[in-house]
Amino acid sequence: MSLRRRFWRWVLRLAVALPIIAIMTVGAVLLWLSSSLPQLDGELRLAGIEGPVQLLRDRYGVPTIRADNRTDAAFGLGYAHAQDRFAQMELMRRGGSGRMSELVGSIALGLDRYTRGLGVLRQAESQAAALPPDLRPMFEAYAAGVNAWLGARAGALPWEVALLFYEPEPWRIADSMIWGRMMAFRLIGNWQAEALRARMAERLTQEQIEDLWPLSAVDDPVTLPGLGSGGASNVWAVSEPAALANDPHLGFTIPNIWYLARIETPEGVLAGATAPGVPLMVLGHNGSIAWGLTTPHTDTADVVTHPEVVSVRRETLAVRWGESVELELRRTRNGVVVSDFSDAMPEGWAVESPAFRDDDRTAEALGRLNEARDWPGFVAALRDFHSPQQNIVYADRTGRIGMVTPGRVPNRRDGFDVSAETGWSHLIPFDRLPRRADPPSGRIVNANNRLVDETYPYYLGREWEAPYRALRIETLLDAGTAHAAIQNDTVSLSARELLPYLLSAVPDVRLQAWDGDMARNRPEPLIYMAWVREAMRAVFADELGPLFEAWWAYRPLVLRRALLDRPAWCDDTGTKAKETCKDRLALAHRRAVAFLQERYGAETPPWGEVHRARFAHPVAGRIPLLRDLLDREIATGGGPTTVNRGSARFSDERHPFRHSHGAGYRAIYNLDDLDKSRFIQAVGQSGNPFSPHYDDLMELWRDGAYITLEPAKPPVHHLLLRPE
């Protein structure tokens, strides 16, 4: 056989063999990674528990944890969280402690700088050290449960960890505190608006800036009116029949931020939403009371332009496959110099807030809340709820309802804008914070709308959410609408309010009979949102210039104010002619029509075709092939101001209508029989893509369905943990 023929034969063999080898390699890797699925049945003997702990799972993977005491139950919750969500927990503690670069290299330096600069880990460690003796054993048991899973697992670690080839460190109490600190800084967002206003002041008048952040109208709904001297989410409580409904709104991810669980001990039942990494029930009921949360959008942070630096901290960031990075982080009396770790502000500017204090005891307060059995116990528990400030609504089995807005709030001389120095030295006393029990109306409603009226003696802020969701909830409650139907309502009052002004400029026949329902099967919501998106650009972009994109959002109150009372906004500053508001709305309509035709063709698709909830994986979502495999997407209804909230980012030119923020958790607590309470979370209980529970709740969530947390009889899976 000639040399040439031998050569080509070997080339042919390789051409056949290489794809086979590649397929076998991929198959072997997938088989290895699939071994990360947890053991859900049988019996294990583990150190760290005093008695048996049962993990009973239903058909959706929701665990009921049964134990003889709260500490063993916390061990079981830690074990269940680790089984289903360890990768999420690991990314949370690594990201929050500023140590992601140790795993993934310089790509994570921005995140690590940010969390180191905020001092998240330092605060978490201070909280852990300050835990009182009666709560510490529960946190220790939870960490022991996580570590028991790390030691007992037989297969691979979750893929996010396994493919980085490292062994996770043991879980610590401080790691559990990181979640709360990250959530606090996530929900204290008014400083970003302050910084934006400071940059706008270089090109706009103070009156123009106030137009862009308008005050609430006199007749807007107020959650706690007439107090006198005494993120977005929805919550309402009614006293007859006693019920509480809550759906907190956050950005979408997969796995979801929330994890459903039921915990049964001789002390009672806890059921609702937990957060992987945390041994507490964040939202739920304890058999006697139920509670729900919304963000009040109060002003708890200030931007300071020339702060006094009181200390400098030097830290080293270890970087995998690279050189370590040295950080120099300056602290002020009440905050941090942001320019040391972020380009969000000019050099030397600081953010100051009570949230930066190391003596924050919010985790302790949440532990006390889990144990409260009545209104006095509920109020007492929240005395140490420091940050982020939240509206926490209460209902109990006697029909009593109430609300407290705990948190550390600066007692300011003034507010709203950037200052050269901190405008406060004291906090509003806890007993003077907004609070009410058993209002005469028999109901409490909050949808991030205005919290107090002008009789309240302290400054809380002015950046309340627009009143549309609160108004719609009140109207539906008045009509006797079922709580589930209210939570899933997609009627936009803001669309009903703005539409006449749009149609007066261009009588688009496709919108003339539309009732504002942003159902996913209708095309009108897409036409309307495309028009408003372009109207915001046509009216405001010329004045705001390069700052427009940072401000660009669905702001119906601002647009309506410009059209009605501030027509100067409608004049294009780049032309000599004087344009009217109708001119700008007509231009916006032409641009919207052109956009829709170019993007979607001659026939406008239904809203749900473009308004799709995108659940992006924090790792896979950044990698093209993995993104397609592991991210999830589903058509949804709703809009930015509907009760079933469907917010999008106008500034995202590729996906300006993608549903990116909304109710990842819904609950309706039936105080007459708390076991009949209904729950849903957005995606699935497991963070493991090999699990059937990775996304099996997604369609139920989209369709407005619920499950109960009563344990299945018999359970689908039963794992018994016994003392070693």
Radius of gyration: 27 Å
Strand order of the largest sheet: 1-25-2-3-6-7-8-9-15-16-17
Helix tally equals: 22
Beta-strand level of the residues, as a percent range? 15-25%
pLDDT average, as an integer? 92
* Secondary-structure content class: alpha+beta
Helix content: 25-40%
State the separation between the terminal residues, measured CA to CA. Answer: 69 Å
How many strands, what sense, and barrel or not for the largest sheet? 11 strands, mixed
Number of strand elements: 25
Name the overall outline: globular
In short:
The chain has 22 helices and 25 strands. With 724 residues, the protein is α+β, with helices and mostly antiparallel strands.
Relevant terms:
25 strands, 22 helices, 11-stranded mixed sheet, globular, alpha+beta, 724 residues
Write the layout of secondary structure elements.
Blueprint: H1 3-34, E1 42-46, E2 53-57, E3 63-66, H2 70-96, H3 101-104, H4 109-118, H5 120-129, H6 136-152, H7 159-162, H8 173-187, H9 190-200, H10 206-212, E4 233-239, E5 242-251, E6 259-265, E7 268-274, E8 281-285, E9 289-294, E10 302-304, E11 309-317, E12 325-332, E13 335-337, E14 350-352, H11 362-371, H12 375-381, E15 391-396, E16 401-404, E17 435-437, E18 443-446, H13 468-478, H14 483-487, H15 493-505, H16 524-544, H17 548-551, H18 556-565, H19 581-600, H20 607-610, E19 612-615, H21 624-630, E20 632-635, E21 646-647, E22 661-663, E23 665-670, E24 678-681, H22 698-702, E25 717-723
Parallel strand pairs: 1-25, 3-6
Antiparallel strand pairs: 2-3, 2-25, 4-5, 4-18, 5-22, 5-23, 6-7, 7-8, 8-9, 9-15, 10-14, 11-12, 13-14, 15-16, 16-17, 19-20, 21-22, 23-24
Helix pairs in contact: 2-6, 5-8, 11-12, 15-18, 16-19
